[in-house]
Amino acid sequence: MARAENKTEAGGTAHLVAALAKALRAQQGLSQEQLGKRLGYTAAAVSAMETCAQPASDQMLVGLEAEIGGGLGVFEKARKWMLLEKYPARFRGFSEIESGAITLCSYETLVVDGLFQTEDYARALIGGGYPPVSEQRREELVEARLARRALFDRDPAPHIELILEESVLRRPFGSWEILRGQLRSLAEDAQRENVVVQVLPLDRGLRGTYAGARGPMKLVETKDHEHVVYMEIEDQAILVSDPAEVSHLAHRYARIRSQALSPDESLAFIERLAGEER
Question: Which of 51, 52, 133, 173 fits a disulfide with 137 by CB distance 3.0 to 4.6 angstroms?
Fold first, then answer.
């Protein structure tokens, strides 16, 4: 939804895209209505984009490149930076690391990892958070989160691991049907050749050892073969690069993984939960 406050919240890339689109449209003698028809949008939508009341979506950027880009590639290049601006500030730096990762190993204790989230699950999770966000901001965050899934199909393919607490698989957001859809999607992702998904059962603490009590983390091997750990705590981001600290956290992750169900057992468990009626 186009909103006046979006004009001040929009980032530098959104304002640059708006100015370029307006200039190129005028240069080619097109009205907002004419350009809108070419793009499949209304004149009001084009106007909102040019004033940043509704910054260009990724789909609109693709259309702008095709219709008025003139082979310059400016709107195509802007897609990456527009998506980057839609991430929360704390995540923007890590998003670059994640997209280029060779190996990404995540342990999650509260929600399904963002990389694996479905559109409905992400929208319910973001929309129900606190403090509440506007509808426009919610949709921007959902779009940016779903864009991360391109990592699954990147060439060369990264190795991706995910360990989830069993409680994550039982906690609904929005509705039970949304959760079932998320579980079905998770089961499909678990069967990708470059993906391993494991479940840490609730009863692990009964055995006297439980390595996951200190919260979620992401272990990354970067494209330069450096190892870092990323963590988020109450909207605060921590990026650990000190080799000794990274090694310590990697050993903890390895212990968590050893306490989880095997990949085959985990897949069967997820599929069983997905089929349960509530």
Answer: 133
* pLDDT 10s digits, 73-107: 999 999 888 888 888 888 988 999 999 999 999 99
Q: Contact 66/1 with Cβ under 8 angstroms?
A: no
Q: What is the pTM of this model?
A: 0.80
pLDDT above 90: residue 277? no
Q: Which residues of 66-104 are buried (b: 16+ CB within 10 A; e: fewer)?
A: ebbbeeeebbeebbeebbbbbbeeebeebbebbbebeeb
Residue 103: name the closest of 194, 216, 32, 231 by CA: 194
Reading phi first (left if > 0) and then psi (alpha if -120 to 50, else beta), residue 120 is in alpha
Q: Edge-to-edge strand order for the sheet containing 195-200?
A: 195-200, 159-165, 103-108, 217-221, 227-233, 236-240
